[in-house]
Amino acid sequence: xxxxxxINIWINEERFKALEDAGLARLLKxxxxxxxxxxxxxxxxxxxxxxxxxxxAKYDEATTxxxxxxxxxxxxxxxxxxxxxxxxxxxxxxxxxxxG
Amino acid sequence: MEYIGHGxxxxxxxxxxxKSEAKKKIEGLTKMPASRQMATEVIGIAYxxxxxxxxxxxKADVDATCKKMELADGTVWSIPIVFDISDKEIADYGIKEGxxxxxxxxxxxxxxxxxxxxxxxxxxxxAEKVYGTKEDKHPGVKRTYxxxxxxxxxxxxxxxxxxxxxxYKPYFLTPRQHREKFKEKNWIKIVAHQTRNxxxxxxxxxxxxxxIAAHGDSPVEQMESMGxxxxxxxxxxxxxxxxxxxxxxxxxxxxxxxxxKSKYFRDDIHMVTMTFxxxxxxxxxxxxHHSIIRTNLGLTHHMFGRDHAGVxxxxxxxxxxxLLMSIPKEKLSITPIYVLEWAYCPHCGEVTCxxxxxxxxxxxxxxxxxxxxxxxxxxxxxxxIFRPEVFDVVMDSAKKYGFGSPFVTxxxxxKAKPAFSIEPL
Lengths: 100, 425
Description:
The complex is a heterodimer of chains A (100) and B (425). Chain A is of the alpha+beta class and 100 residues long. Chain A has helices at 13-21, 44-53, 72-85, 91-99; strands spanning 7-11, 28-31, 35-40, 58-60, 66-68. Helices cover 42% and strands 21% of the residues of chain A. Chain B is α/β, with parallel strands linked by helices and 425 residues long. In chain B, helix 3 (59-68) packs parallel to helix 5 and helix 5 packs antiparallel against helix 6. The two termini of chain B are 27 Å apart.
């Protein structure tokens, strides 16, 4: 399997309900004593584009091996795309939207 | 009373508290503005946080620090404390070896600087020896390369004490005041928790682990009786230069104290203070520096966890432990307590030490970055991971001090009020 550089979107009750209604609750992983997280995969190229688009974000190579510190509004957009497309493979479309 | 600080030497206090005496001392001196970085170091030097150093380092001390991790007199020392200056400033202010200048901050008199030496030092040498890298993406190296072309060495005397703003004011104690406070509390063993973080449960357990280790050979009765503790945890928050994405300092100090206020620690066991220091992220060398500061505060033990004061992947997880272990005990008069990570184990249903739990495949490790990500998503973490009272203080601090964010933003960097100011004398 190709290496991924994921974005973790943490799920509150509101987000959870929307995912459940869309039949996507199965995509969630449980972490840290019952917290739910949606792990959206990115390729290395997508990671680099995201870090360029959002300079406050960083790829945490040392601990989580994921793209962290993305603003909430950005994660909301990614989350909404996942719900709309009913798929985790949304990063190309998301990046395209930002450039448009 | 004379207190003994690092290196077995008297605690340095170079402060003229009497204003009329201070006014006389500064008469006729040339005024030279100090940067925020230098003003922060002046506070560290003058109150004795950096004892036995009495001023900015001379070349011999910088050289010994870089090459041998000690001062010229052999005292263990790991990070150069330098005053950088340009040739133009030297000319403009007429700086000469053997002369004195008045350092100002906020336009007001702050400290007398008796200049003993004007010198140059290879910045790459500092970078390589102190940080173990010459890469300028390392924040400590970046700071080093940004120093101006010359350095001034010489003693400092604070003539105008800083005014600490709220909410920091109750948390700022000088080394002498720390020691007086410990005496008042009857604390004999005191373990330091160095922090630049809002606490999650992993941090809380590290503190508990360190407390129990430090208290281990003491009578339990004192621990059993509320109000009679003879050992304590001192959470000493580092307040200084910030980077975008860090927690704001106000949130750090207030959330750490919330652990006591919400009784996750007893009142008589836990205390929060702060030290002005710009993190250099020097990993193992910075761990030694933190030991020195906490020795000067009068602490007996210091907890060191994973990747202490590190950044990125420059140092391995327990490199700081190994450097500290290499220093002879008589050279560093504080006992290190080395702690492993604590993590959440779904099998045990609790936060546990990774060195004790056998469910290695199931452990869910804490990560400061991950917790920051959860908070940024405005999701309230489960109470086993992050205390709800602490979460509320984080969010409250964001509103009151962080322009809506608990993390340092460009707006915070530009608009937040400095933690200290120098008023007219």
